[in-house]
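A reminder from the course coordinator: this example appears on the midterm review sheet, so study it carefully.

Given structure:
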């Protein structure tokens, strides 16, 4: 009779998930009832948003909608973007270029600018998410900080792969909306 034999090895055999794996699981409902992102091959569970986060998202959409409509651009919430073969992120808000066709996972060139609303996620949103969105080539990125009552506004540098220093705009001050003809004030 054959017996199972386990070969000793120091090599790790785990294989990271790909963006295609993650998007297929998403399509099949594997993350029903939860929010998740694929970060460098690992699935990360995201905390559900609380009231202040959701309320600010709704206010921002209300401020942006007339500008996007006039420019024939699109604005949406909880939008998925594929950063690379092992990373899929979800924006709080994305503004798509005019003519972009929304699909299950956006590409960086379709996004005019992205917004994250941060109440407890400032470190991640100002760090690894900023870096990922820069690598994806998204021209502008805002982190709207509920606690600090400021918006960190980033623009891609000349190389196109990273954001320059943030311009920090306090709530109550008008801001130009990247790629759209208009200004908004977050109060």
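Designed residues:
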């Amino acid at each position: 009779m054959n017996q199972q034999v386990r070969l000793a090895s120091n090599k790790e055999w785990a294989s990271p998930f790909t963006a295609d794996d993650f998007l297929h699981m998403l399509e099949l409902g594997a993350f029903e009832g939860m929010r998740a992102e694929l970060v460098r091959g690992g699935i990360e569970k995201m905390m559900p948003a609380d009231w202040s986060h959701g309320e600010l998202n709704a206010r921002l959409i209300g401020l942006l909608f007339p500008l996007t409509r006039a420019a024939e651009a699109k604005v949406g919430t909880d939008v998925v973007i594929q950063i690379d073969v092992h990373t899929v992120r979800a924006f709080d808000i994305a503004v798509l270029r005019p003519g972009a066709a929304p699909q299950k996972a956006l590409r960086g060139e379709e996004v005019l600018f992205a917004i994250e609303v941060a109440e407890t996620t400032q470190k991640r949103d100002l760090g690894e998410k900023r870096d990922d969105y820069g690598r994806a080539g998204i021209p502008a990125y805002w982190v709207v900080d509920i606690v600090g009552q400021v918006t960190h506004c980033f623009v891609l540098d000349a190389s196109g792969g990273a954001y320059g220093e943030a311009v920090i705009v306090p709530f109550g001050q008008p801001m130009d909306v990247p790629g759209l003809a208009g200004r908004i004030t977050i109060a």
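The mean pLDDT is 87. The beta strands are 35-39, 42-46, 74-84, 87-96, 111-118, 140-145, 150-155, 167-170, 174-176, 183-185.
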